[in-house]
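2024-03-11 09:14:02 INFO worker-7 job=invfold-0412 stage=load source=structure_tokens
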């Protein structure tokens, strides 16, 4: 009889397998391949790539064709007469132009050099005549003088922005891993709770049946049987709640990792933790060499220095030199402009010199200086916070490695103790209260172990996210781009 009762107690053991078995590593890889978050990161990376390509193209030779073709006018225009009066004269003409130009920006000076050809055709329909004007060839320079050089600063800042965006992409993938870990363990804990609830419901049913037999024999009080009945009802209620929580957690995990199939997951508990030591200084150096934050520190200071340079340059003399040399001619036919072409020169200096601005220039410069100083201080503080964050995470990771081992041992002891308590209760050698305490301790130890595993894996993926470094393989994640 006792053997039959023991068999009834353990027939409700539940396995984690396997409509669709899924490990944590498989879930992470699936999310990196299929999740919307990973696709968004990839799209943003591509956007940043083409934006940087556009920036690079600005420093390469540009060939362009511009013009007005046709440019027809039919109207009356005002014509001043020799005696000072005004006459309105009818005009009907076409004044078309075409310009072919090759230009090249000069990053060091902020200027532009160019070579161009131009052809102009004028048709006077009132007089039935056609004239051509053109520039067979011309060379020129447009050079800002004493002015802010945007190209010089862009050449320093834009590559940093692009490098920063590349690291943001890697961080986004590691953030996906971190989020998957959270969703995975939310479902795993829900499944463990469901397993516990189902087993407790089954065990309480069995114990209630045993107690009912004892009540008939007068070996148990009515209070004990009522307590067992209450335990059965609570177990049924806990089971219904656990099922609902498991369904919600299942949907959240499937939605995040991009899994579209109808079948459910049976998750594998990631018992095998990664045992390795991490040097905090090495972790900090890895982060400073890879994280987008480290690149952003340099970029922010450069941008503040750029703003100060711009404020200073725009406060004084602003001038622009425009120079062009070449040939020009006119004629009745297009080829006439190439015959005996004449010299063509153009030199111009445009300038603006503030004389009285009531301290506006000084105020802008002092503001830019203060902003630079504030940025330097903020970056210094952010660096300290950044390093402290990594150091804390390394310490936490090492502590959680030990915590997992302790909770695993506790879980084993609590499970064994509950089995002994069941045997003793069947033999009438243990009270129902002590059996309930053993059950609670077993359930709490199991949950604590799974929670410790969750905290450990979250710390593991967080450390990768903070440093972009794989400490298990001892290599930077940059090598896997």
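2024-03-11 09:14:09 INFO worker-7 stage=emit residues=481
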């Amino acid at each position: 009889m006792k053997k039959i009762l023991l068999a009834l107690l353990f027939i409700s053991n539940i396995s984690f397998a396997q409509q669709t078995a899924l490990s944590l590593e498989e879930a992470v890889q699936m999310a990196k391949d299929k999740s919307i978050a990973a696709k968004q990161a990839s799209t943003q990376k591509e956007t940043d790539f083409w934006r940087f390509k556009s920036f690079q193209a600005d420093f390469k030779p540009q060939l362009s064709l511009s013009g007005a073709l046709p440019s027809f006018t039919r109207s009356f225009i005002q014509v001043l007469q020799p005696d000072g009066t005004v006459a309105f004269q009818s005009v009907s003409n076409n004044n078309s132009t075409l310009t072919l130009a090759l230009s090249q920006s000069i990053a060091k000076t902020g200027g532009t050099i160019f070579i161009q050809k131009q052809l102009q055709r004028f048709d006077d329909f009132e007089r039935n005549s056609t004239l051509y004007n053109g520039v067979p060839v011309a060379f020129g320079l447009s050079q800002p003088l004493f002015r802010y050089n945007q190209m010089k600063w862009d050449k320093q800042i834009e590559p940093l922005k692009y490098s920063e965006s590349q690291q943001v992409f890697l961080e986004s993938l590691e953030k996906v891993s971190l989020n998957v870990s959270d969703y995975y363990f939310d479902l795993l804990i829900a499944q463990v709770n469901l397993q516990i609830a189902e087993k407790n419901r089954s065990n309480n049913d069995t114990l209630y049946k045993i107690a009912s037999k004892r009540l008939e024999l007068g070996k148990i009080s009515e209070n004990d049987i009522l307590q067992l009945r209450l335990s059965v009802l609570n177990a049924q209620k806990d089971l219904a709640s656990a099922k609902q929580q498991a369904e919600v957690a299942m949907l959240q995990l499937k939605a995040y990792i991009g899994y579209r199939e109808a079948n459910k997951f049976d998750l594998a508990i990631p018992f095998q933790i990664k045992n390795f030591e991490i040097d905090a200084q090495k972790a900090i150096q890895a982060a400073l060499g890879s994280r987008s934050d480290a690149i952003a520190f340099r970029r922010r200071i450069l941008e503040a220095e750029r703003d100060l340079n711009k404020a200073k340059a725009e406060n004084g003399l602003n001038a622009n030199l425009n120079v062009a040399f070449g040939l020009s001619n006119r004629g009745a036919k297009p080829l006439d402009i190439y015959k005996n072409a004449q010299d063509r020169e153009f030199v111009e200096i445009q300038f603006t010199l503030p004389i009285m601005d009531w301290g506006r220039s000084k105020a802008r410069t002092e503001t830019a200086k203060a902003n630079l100083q504030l940025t330097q201080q903020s970056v210094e503080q952010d660096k300290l916070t950044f390093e402290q964050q990594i150091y804390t995470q390394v310490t936490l990771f090492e502590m959680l490695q030990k915590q997992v081992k302790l909770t695993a041992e506790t879980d084993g002891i609590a499970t064994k103790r509950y089995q002994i308590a069941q045997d003793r209760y069947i033999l009438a050698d243990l009270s129902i209260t002590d059996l309930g305490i053993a059950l609670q301790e077993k359930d709490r130890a199991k949950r604590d172990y799974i929670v410790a595993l969750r905290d450990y894996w979250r710390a593991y993926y967080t450390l990768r996210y903070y440093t972009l470094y794989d400490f298990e393989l001892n290599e930077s994640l940059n090598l896997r781009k």
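2024-03-11 09:14:09 INFO worker-7 stage=report msg="Confidence is low (pLDDT under 50) at residues 1-18."
2024-03-11 09:14:10 INFO worker-7 job finished
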